[in-house]
Amino acid sequence: MITNQYIDEMASYSRWQNENIYQCCEAIGREERYRGIFFGSIHDTLDHVCVVNRSILMFLHGTLPDRNPPGKAVWVELERT
């Protein structure tokens, strides 16, 4: 059975892993993040991770997330903060 404690632990782990990934990407620079991979680039892959994480959090709080339109980067918003 999935408990609230388990969800909290997994969210904390995910946050820790995301921070590590973002630090690595910051170290390689913006230009290096744009490589031809599944989502087009490391940058766009991380944006996908942000969208999924945000959608899961909204769902857990009882709201349905809006569809994220193609080309609307969530990670850009996070980089500004």
From TrEMBL:
Gene3D superfamilies: dinb family like domain. The keyword Metal-binding applies. One of its GO terms (molecular function) is metal ion binding. InterPro entries: DinB, DinB/YfiT-like. Keywords: Metal-binding. Belongs to the DinB family. This is Uncharacterized protein.
